[in-house]
Design goal:
The chain contains eleven helices and 13 strands. By secondary structure, it is an alpha/beta fold. The chain has a seven-stranded mixed sheet with strand order 12-11-7-10-9-8-13, covered by helices on one side. Helix 2 links the parallel strand 1 and strand 2.
Length: 337
Amino acid sequence: MAKTSFNRRDFIKSAALAGAGMSLNLSPLSSFAKDVSSGKGKRVGIIGLDTTHSIAFTKALNDANAGPEYAGYRVVAAYPYGSRDIELCIKRIPVETEEIKKYGVKITGSIAQLLKEVDVVLLETNDGRLHLEQALEVLKAGKPLFIDKPMAASFKDGAAIFKAAEKYKVPVFSSSSLRFMSAIKDVNTGKYGKVTGADTYSPAYLEKTHTDLFWYGIHGVETLFSVMGPGCKQVTQFSAGDTDVVIGTWADNRIGTYRGLRSGKTDFGGTCYCEKEIVQLGPYVGYAPLLIEIIQFFESGKPPVSSRETLEILAFMEAAAESKRQAGKPVAMPAFS
C-alpha cells in the first residue's frame, strides 16, 4: 500500500517535536464567545463537500425547526474542495454541491471568499492531507474552527495547526463523533469509577493516500482515548488479512486495545472496564451529539477536547504504523509534557 510522508524518520522527528515541548492546551478565548440574544456571529461556513458530514450538519443547522441547542447557527456558504485525487471524494463533490444549495447555501470559488461571509468554520474536507493548508487560511482570518476527522494526515501537520491557533489566538478543536456517545460521557463523569482498561472497535477501511488508521480507523482510536485519556507510552500493532489489532500500554500500566475491521459485520463500539462496572460503549447514534458540542464550542471559545489529547491520538496512529512496519515490535510514544 502506498504511503504518505510517514516513515520511521518522520516518526522520530515527530517524537522529538513532542518531547521539545508540545504542551499546547489552548485556553478558552472569551473574545470569541457569542452574544446569543443579538444573533451575531452565527454564520457558518463549510470547507469540503467530499464527505457526508457536510450535508448532515447543514440539514440540522438550516432546518426551520432547529432546536435551541443549535443557538441560531446557520450554514450560509461552502467551498467544495475537497480532495482532487481520491476517487470517492471526487465523485461526492458535484453531488453534494448541488445538494447543499437546496438549503440556501452559497457556493464560493475560494476559501478566501468564504471567509468574508462567515463567522465560524467547519473544516469538513475528507482528505486530511489538505487540513494544514486550509486551516492556516482560516486561523489567519481569525475564525473559530472545527476540524473533522482526521485532525490532519500526520502528527507533524496536527502540531503545526495547534501552533498556528496559539499564534493567532483562535480556538480550534478536532474530534470524531464517536467521542460524544452517551455511554462515554457516563464513564467520563466517574459514574462507574476509575477506568482500568478498554477495548474498542470500528471499521478500518484503507485509503492509499493516508497512513492506515488515519483514514477511518481513527473513529475507534478516538473512542479508546475518550475513555482511557492521554498518557499512552507504548504501541504495538498486529495485522492479518482484514483485521488490525493495536495494543496501547499507558504510563500507569493500564492497557487499551483497538480492533480495526474491514470484512464481515462492522460497527462502532467497545467495552470499558471500570472499578464498579463493565460498560458497553454504544450505540452510535449519529452526528447530533458532536454538532451540539461544536456549537457550544463556538459559543464559548472553549475546546471540549485538549490539544494534547488530539496530538497524542495522531502520535498513537503513527506509532501503530511504525510497529506494523517492524512486524509487530513495540514502539515508544513521544513524551508529552
